[in-house]
Amino acid sequence: MTDNGTIFALSSGSGTAGVAVVRLSGNEAIDALSALLKSAVPKPRYAALRTLYDPVSGERLDQALVLVFKGPASFTGEDTVEMHLHGGRAVVAGVLTALGSIEGLRLAEAGEFSRRAFDNGKLDLTEAEGLNDLIHAQTVAQRDQALRQMDGELRRLYDGWREDLLGHLAHLEADIDFPDEDLPEGVSAAVMPEIQYLKEKIEHHMADSRRGRMMRDGFRIALLGEPNAGKSTLLNALAQADVAIVSDEAGTTRDVIEVQLDLGGFPVRLLDTAGVRTSVQKVEQEGVRRALERAKDSDLKLVLVRADIWPVVPDAVRNWIDQSTILVVTQTDLVAKKMFHVEHLAGLSPPTIVPVSAKSGAGLNVLFDELEKIVTEKMSAREAPALTRLRHQRALEDAIEHLERFKANAGRDAVLAAEDVRMAVRSIGRITGRVGVEDMLDIVFSDFCIGK
Fold it and tell me: Model's pTM, two decimal places?
C-alpha cells in the first residue's frame, strides 16, 4: 500500500441536495475525522450520527452520518471515512474548509480515489474504466455494460488469454534454455495451433468493437436530405422537443445538430445535418461538407425525400442509400393518397421505406418501431463482454501483430519466436495493468470526477 498523503473531496454531485457525501482516504483519515468530533469516532463499518465542529474555531458545522472503513477493507485499500452531510452549499463548504485546515490533508485530484484503488490492488484498469462508465451511464444498456465490466468480465477474458500465452511461452523458453535436455522436438510447431486459435479469438473479439463503441458513445443516426426535405421537423418530432429551427427558407440548418435519445434502453445520437445541395455560399458549403462527413461515420442513415416529388430520389442523396439506410418519405400530409412502394425505386434497394408526416404524426410510430428494432439488433448484449475503448483495441492490435511475427519466426529462430509471444503477453497485460503502465494511468483516471 502506498502513502501519498490523505485526500478528501465531495464525492456526490455539486449543488444543493438532500445529502452530500464527503470522502477521505489515507493514513490520517480517521485522525482527521476525530479532529472534527467532540465525541468518539464510530467503530469501523458502523454508521453513527455525529455533530461536526470546525477544529480551529469550534463552530458547529453539521450533524452528519459518519462511517469509517479500515484499510485494506475499503474501496481504496486505505483507511477511509465518509461523512453524509446535509446538502446545503454552506454546510459542504464549511466541512471542506475545515478539512483543508488540518495539516497533512489535501483536496483529491480527478480520479485519485480510484487511482489509489488500482495502486492498492482493489481494481484493475478495465474495472476502473467500467466504474467510470457506470458513473456516466445514461441508459439501461450502458448501465448493464458498465456493471459487467466493473464485475471483471473483461479482466477475466484478457487474463485468460495472457495466462494461455504465458504457458506457451514457458515451453518455448524451456526449449531455448535447455537444448540438451530430453524435451519434445518442434516445440514451436506444437504450440502453433494453440496460438493461432487464440489469435483468432482475439480477432473475433475485436470485430465486435463497433458495438462496444456504440454502447459507450451512442448509436449514431444521421438525417440526410435536400434542403426543405423536413430533416429538422423530423428531428424535433423524434426528440419530442423543439431542438432545431424549422423554416421554409432553404439552408436554415448550417451545422450538425445533435440530440441524444434513449431508444429501447440504448443510447442513440440523432444528427440533423445541413441540406445536401450544390451551393456557392462558403458557409453552406462547409455545412454540407460536415453533413456528408458525419453521414460516413454514422451507424444508420435516414435519407429523406419529400412526398410531392416521389418516386424521384434526388441525385444529391441517391448515392447514400445502401443497406444501412432507412428511406423516409416526408410531408405525406401534403399529397393525396399517394403510394410509397419499393418497386417505384428503379436501381435502388433500401431495406425499409417509411412514409411519415411530422405535422400529423402519421407514420412516426412505425419509424420509431423500426429504429428501435435496428438499434436493439445491433447493440444487444452478447455472451462475451464488448470491447469498449480505443486503448484496448490498440493493445490487442499490437498483440495480434506480435503473434503474426511469431508465426513467421517459429521453426526458424526460436529466440525471436519466444520474444514475439512475450511481447504479445505484454500488450494484453497493458489493458488490465498487469505490466508497467505508468504512462497511461493519468489518461485512464483523468476522466473521472474529483470525488471518485
Answer: 0.67
